[in-house]
Each structure stands twice: as structure tokens, then as C-alpha cells.
Amino acid sequence: MNVDDYYRLRTLGMRLCRRVAAEMAPEGATRVLDAACGTGLLFRETNACTGAVRVCLDKSPEFLAHVPDDCVPVVGDLLDPPDLPGPFDVIFLLNTIYNLGGTDTAVKAVGSLSRLLAPGGIILADIRNPAHPILRLRYLMEKLRGRFVPTAHSLKKMRRALARRGLRVRRARPIGWLIPFGYVLEVVLAEDGEE
Ligand SMILES: C[S@@+](CC[C@H](N)C(=O)[O-])C[C@H]1O[C@@H](n2cnc3c(N)ncnc32)[C@H](O)[C@@H]1O
Which residue has the higher pLDDT, 164 or 191? Predict the structure, then answer.
């Protein structure tokens, strides 16, 4: 997908995820990472972590060329991150997990990012709800049209799979109305996750 396609496809749901994640980010973070940042919309649309060193990681140099001037752009794969100016108090992974495939890869992605966390740091990552009726219909239509179908992940399964990797979902903020279409998860290292 090129940058023009991405701007055409971005949805209200994607914007909501960025807004909710920005609200969940603690104040006072000094170093933050937006992993799979795309064109840096998180830092354009919200005031997430202003004042911190903000690093933007994406595999696409074309997308990275659009991140805000006060961010540090780094080309690389989040599943095998390059050297980054971390460790980070907050790592965002937004509107991306559903493109990565099954739960194993989703958990691998969060796991590889967790190695970049500063003590007490958090990952804010969103998932889509497989029980949401409109999403189910949309994904079915995509399948029937022979197009790429995103993967929704149940909150319960993600919690369990992350726990097996030593990660804990400390908070899950629903996104949407009535039936949430997704959740923004606050993930911490299990030893940091107080009950
Ligand atoms: C749908 S966009 C989301 C961008 C941004 N997080 C947002 O909320 O607007 C997904 C982005 O993930 C990037 N991406 C996908 N897989 C990646 C990987 N393994 N490593 C780094 N970036 C990746 C793509 O290049 C793309 O820019």
C-alpha cells in the first residue's frame, strides 16, 4: 500500500484508536516509540507524549518521510527491531496487529517490542473484536471479494497468549459504542503488573 492508498483507506475507527491510546499514555514519559507508525498520524492528530523524545519506526521509508519534523524516524521491522534510541516509557502499536495475521504473530510483535521497554514502561496496542457484527460482515465481504482479510483477536485469547510470554494486560479500554469494535490494551511485563 502506498501513502495515497493509506490516506484513502483510513477510517474513523483508526482515528478513535489513536485518540484512546493517546489518552491512556501516562504524563511524564521521556522516551516514546510509535512502532509501525505509518505517516505519524498519532503524533499529528493527538498530543500524545508531547515533550518526550518521540521515535517513529516503520518498515516503509515512504511512509516515514511524512512523520512530523520533531520525531526521530527509523526504518526497520518491529518483529526484529533495529538499534533504537530507547529504552522507552511508552510504546504504541496501533492499527497494525490486525494486519499481522494470527495470535502467534501478534504476540511475537508485542513480545519483541517489550524488550525495548524501560522499567515500568507500557505498550499500548489495539486489537479488533471478532464478535462485532459489523466487523464480521465487513471481513466476510472482503473474503468473498478475494481481498486481504484483517484478523480480529478475542481479548480473552490475547490475554492468555500474552501471559504465556510473560506479558500482562493491565487494562483494556473498549473502543466504540454498545458493542466495542476493539480494545486498546495496556501491556506490561508480568513482573510490573500489580493486581
Ligand atoms: C495501517 S498502518 C498504521 C499506521 C499507524 N500506526 C496509524 O495508526 O495510523 C500500518 C503500518 O504498519 C507498517 N508495518 C507493517 N508491518 C510492519 C513491520 N513488521 N515492521 C514495521 N512496520 C510495519 C506499515 O508499513 C504501515 O505503515
Answer: 164
107 C-alpha to ligand 1 centroid (Å):
16
- Amino acid in the structure at residue 113: L
- Asked if pLDDT for residue 80 goes beyond 60, the answer is yes
- Confirm if 121 and 52 have CB atoms less than 8 A apart: no
**Does residue 14 have its Cβ closer than 6 Å to ligand 1?**
yes
Pocket test for ligand 1, best of 34, 59, 91 (most atoms within 8 A of CB): 59
Ramachandran sector of residue 31 (left: φ over 0; alpha: ψ -120 to 50; beta: rest): beta
Q: Report yes or no on 55 lying in a domain.
A: yes
Note the pLDDT tens digit of each residue in 103-156. 999 999 999 999 999 999 999 999 999 999 999 999 999 999 999 999 999 999
In a domain, 194, yes or no: no
Please state, in angstroms and rounded to a whole number, the distance separating the CA atoms of residues 177 and 60: 33
Residue 138 is part of a domain; what is its CATH number? 3.40.50.150
Cβ–Cβ < 8 Å for 58, 79: no
Indicate the number of domains in the chain.
1
Give me the percent of the chain exceeding a pLDDT of 70: 95
Write the CB contacts of 22 (distance below 8 Å, at least 6 apart in sequence). 42, 46, 47, 48
